[in-house]
Amino acid sequence: MSSKNTVKVSVSGENILNLPLLEGTLGPRVIDVRKLYSDHGYFTYDPGFTSTASCESSITFIDGEKGILLHRGYPIQELASQSSFMEVAYLLLHDDLPDLDQLNHFRSEITHHTMLHEQLIYFYRGFRRDAHPMAIMVGIVGALSAFYHDSLDIADPDQQKLAVIRMLAKMPTIAAMAYKYSQGQPFVYPRNDLSYAANFLHMMFSLPVEPYEVSPVMERAMDRIFILHADHEQNASTSTVRLASSSGANPFACIAAGIACLWGPAHGGANEAVLEMLQEIRTPDRIPEFLARAKDKDDPFRLMGFGHRVYKNYDPRASVLRESCYEILEDVGNGSEPLLELALTLEKKALADPYFQEKRLFPNVDFYSGIIFKAMGIPTSMFTVLFAVARTVGWLSQWKEMIEDPKMKIGRPRQLYKGHQKRKFVPVNERNS
Ligand code: ACO
Fold first, then answer.
1. Which end of the chain has less Cβ packing within 10 Å, N or C?
2. Residue 307 Cα, ligand 1 centroid: separation in angstroms?
3. What residue ranges line ligand 1, CB within 6 angstroms?
């Protein structure tokens, strides 16, 4: 290997190590440390994976410095404005945009797998009505592995494909049923004549007693939200799905693990936290108080919907959603206009503040999604569930890519051990208190 393709590392002034340097199609070069331990006896230390590429992937590229997000090479803004969620789902799974026949076939496959095994209804009934819908999601999605035995063998490409179709098709049904259950309303079955987004809205909001027309603006906004959340390379929940799957676990169990990870307020739970924060701030005159709290090191409060591990610039998804906010508020409003006004003022003030400028904290995708959900009449506890519905295709694409990779290994990080050295066991009656 030429020295151009290697990195020399000196340890304590000696022991020169030559490590291979890898190049992707875009993004920073990567130092290959795979043989560092076996050849040289060292581990690397990177809690939080701030500088570690955990895998090779061709699905999504992010340049956080410039605020760029590409799926299979296509900019997110173009996908959000010119395509549908079904096209993006196909793209993420298959590497190319579908032609019309491929798209119709894919849509039809998804549409014909949206119903749930009827027995799963009893699982819902086992939950308390006030259970958080994400708790229900983790449970029901995990339980799918107990129902669909013919799509659990990950070594069989037909079963893999069936698992993907089922998971993608059933996720909106599972989510809408979690909502209906929390409301004490009857479950609504899917409709095959509706689009993915419209069908979800139908299952969420229609009642057996009167007709429900899905508003085209709501349908478009929901579809766009699904597109914007569809994948985001190796984020925490996706990495969880990959790690869980690396042991060969079945896809339903792995997606349940991803949902559990997404639930946390530092990840998918942030959109719920943003709305709660805006409701707590209430009026623009209280913004300085909350900004001061966000900057105070002794106060655990953070400005929710601000900051991102990867984006050190405006999250491109947030700009698209900000535009969607105006559209949806014009169509349905639902009394959310003051919240949008408050959010816009908060954004302006935070972006002008030296603390946020120095730390390069910009609005992320969650900053505006909550306002749209609220305007649509979706309760706060369902926000992260919607994120999970959208992200399922990303998890599945990354899962598929991983299990198809002949280099796949079980994920098994190492550690910097800081505990006791070996010591002698003392029987309980001989220990000094
Ligand atoms: N408000 C105030 N200060 C912040 C914020 C914030 N929202 N985010 C980061 N900071 C500060 C930190 O206190 C830290 O300051 P320090 O260097 O003086 O210690 C610095 O900025 C860097 O923050 P880290 O937490 O180290 O950055 P990390 O990359 O680990 O965290 C994260 C990113 C978790 C998203 C963080 O910005 C955050 O908690 N934001 C609020 C929650 C949120 O909106 N999450 C959604 C993320 S997007 C998604 O999951 C779809």
1. C
2. 5
3. 266-268, 270, 294, 302-309, 359, 361, 364-366
